[in-house]
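Final report, closing paragraph on structural work. Over the funding period we assembled a curated collection of sequence-structure pairs, and we close with a single example.
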Amino acid sequence: MGITRPNARVKKIKESAMQAAASYINIADLKSSGNALAAPADLPATGGGCGTHGGEGKASCGTSGGPDDMPQEIWDKVKNHPCYSEEAHHHYARMHVAVAPACNIQCNYCNRKYDCSNESRPGVVSQKLTPEQAVKKVLAVASEIPQMTVLGIAGPGDSLASPKKTFETFRMLQEQAPDIKLCLSTNGLALPDLVDEICKYNIDHVTITINMVDPEIGAKIYPWIFWDHKRVTGVEAARILHEQQMKGLEMLTARGVLTKINSVLIPGVNDEHMIEVNKAVKARGAFLHNIMPLISEPEHGTYFGLNGQRGPSAQELKAVQDACMGGANLMRHCRQCRADAVGLLGEDRSEEFTLDKIEEMEVVYDLDRRRSYQDKVETERQAQHAAKVEALASQGELEVDDSIKVLVAVATKGGGRVNEHFGHVTEFQVFEVSAAEALFVGHRRVDQYCQGGFGEDEQLPSVVRAINDCHAVLVAKIGACPRDELKGAGIEPVDAYVDEFIEKAALSWFADYRKRIASGEIEHQARGDASIRQGAYTAAA
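Its predicted structure, as stored:
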């Protein structure tokens, strides 16, 4: 790779990214308790994620091509669930319906009063629906997007704070769309009292947001809860919430319901505490642990945002996630979706399915057509997995440090392939690549560079900051100006793997990268930190 001398603007970009790294969380400090993430003595190590008997947590769950490390009945639940399987999220879609407006707690990172068509974060919704409207919308989406396999209720408040609306929606869907998986998200406060209802409607997947297992820390996150017909505040509120969350999680595990734990990473509040959260949820049978970055832009109007609480940098988030490996299995492909999101993870087609547009549609719920289409999707997915296995087998032995790991950004518009123009990207997928694997570790939202057919040069610095920790970016096509800018910042633009499966392309590039290191053509160097843009799609989206 020929590297040009960085210009003044690129130097500023790199300095900006390194400033974010100044408060980098030390992995060694986070692992001060060692790798002993075993369950407390008074609790069985049940569940534990993908494995059948707990054990070492995986860095990313659901990446195998078949039920190699889980019982068949578990595999059947996760194989086409885009949130529970990283491989599936490239191919299968989900949707949320906003039927549950009430909430029984207040979080310092949440503001449900704000909505914008370009806004993407939990609690945001453009239209609140009745159960009847929600079911009609689901049937319309499922008829138009046959790879939509999952329906979730995630608000805009808490799904179990409006139980009548939530379960009436599920009841009707169970009758009219029996092939769609049902999910709900909750803060867990009301969960123990409603586990029987969850099981009654065959809701196989439940997400619980758990940000702490220490009420002293919880008091910094939750100003109040509504409990026993009154508002409770402070440490007492956090204690009640914690006890309800742990009880509900144990009850779901005992009933065979798969649980995903969402945790919002808040620097200086619960970052060092996250290992304890991971231990606690693993001990109680959580299937996945999703550690998400705090969304804290002031314009969202949250308490944290208005009072200067920052979100984590890319390296800070990854450090905490890596420190939790060995505990509950990790999910790293979450997009922190709107409460009315529709489509593949990373895209939102909700504007295509507003109530007025649905009224004009001829909705035909053809179960056979949906199954036939999904069979084709599964064939493509298996081809992706086979390509990855083939690429790994061809890595070969080189006289170069096998411990080298690099991050690679990928421009994709779906299907698990390198198939997007650099200028059209609104989200890069990021993979950690080594001689042993290509592991999905996150995504980075950016402002779209090409708008109206022309490149917007002022957008480039923010794009570079978003992938500043990556050694390369794989694209379908890229113009001369962004190519030069990326090279100047030390990021290699690569357009040699157009339409190839992502893992195969990343591993092929990495094999070539290692050969260049071995030949002395280049020298491997560490990259800097990167910024995480959360909470909004681009203005052009």
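The first strand starts at residue 93 and ends at 96. The chain has 16 helices and 18 strands. We thank the funder for supporting this effort.
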